[in-house]
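Deliverable D2.4 — example input (structure tokens):
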């Protein structure tokens, strides 16, 4: 599997979440919403509360691309704006944000791609100033303990779609735990990222979100 391609598919799909969340707010309804709509709004409120309630988190992730290729690692998140997808010491790939910019680091070709956090494809996961409920929509799951939220920017279809799946869990912030997400990029490349063994409120040093720049050194990441 080409980990670099599948990671980029994941990031482009997540771009829908980040860019849609910074779009123009939808108009407010003039009449009281029907009961079903009010229930949907409540669930979206819970999703926002759950995402904003995470100060730090670590979780194991399993990433599956559209061809069935699988890679694993550890995701570490620290607000505001810091995240790291670590594929292991032997991997040639790393995704990390230092709170200002998001970097995709490819040690195989000594290349670094950078996005400002305000345009980051991972904004829906770690930027508490963004509001999923204003631009996402609920997708019926048939299970009251599972909430599925699809986020996309209709004005920018090239950034794809992200669907985030939450399960009710009293021990998680806001009573909801992010189980997995499915990212679909503009070329219909689907990447699924599943999380397990969530740990909240863990001590995470800021040095976790630094990396060795391969453009300046041929040494592998530590």
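Example output (designed residues):
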């Amino acid at each position: 599997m080409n980990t670099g391609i599948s990671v980029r598919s994941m990031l482009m799909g997540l771009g829908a979440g980040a860019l849609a969340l910074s779009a123009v707010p939808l108009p407010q309804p003039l009449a009281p919403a029907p009961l079903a709509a009010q229930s949907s709004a409540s669930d979206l409120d819970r999703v926002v509360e759950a995402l904003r309630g995470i100060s730090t988190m670590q979780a194991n992730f399993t990433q599956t691309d559209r061809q069935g290729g699988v890679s694993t690692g550890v995701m570490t998140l620290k607000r505001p704006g810091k995240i790291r997808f670590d594929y292991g010491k032997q991997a040639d790939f790393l995704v990390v944000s230092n709170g200002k910019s998001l970097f995709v680091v490819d040690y195989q070709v000594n290349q670094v791609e950078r996005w400002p956090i305000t345009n980051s494809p991972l904004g829906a996961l770690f930027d508490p100033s963004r509001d999923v409920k204003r631009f996402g929509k609920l997708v019926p799951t048939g299970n009251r303990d599972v909430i599925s939220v699809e986020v996309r920017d209709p004005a920018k279809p090239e950034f794809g779609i992200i669907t985030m799946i939450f399960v009710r869990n009293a021990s998680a912030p806001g009573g909801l735990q992010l189980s997995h997400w499915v990212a679909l990029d503009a070329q219909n490349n689907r990447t699924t990222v599943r999380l397990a063994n969530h740990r909240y409120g863990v001590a995470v040093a800021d040095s976790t979100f630094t990396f060795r720049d391969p453009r300046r050194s041929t040494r592998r990441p530590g």
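Confidence is low (pLDDT under 50) at residues 13-38.
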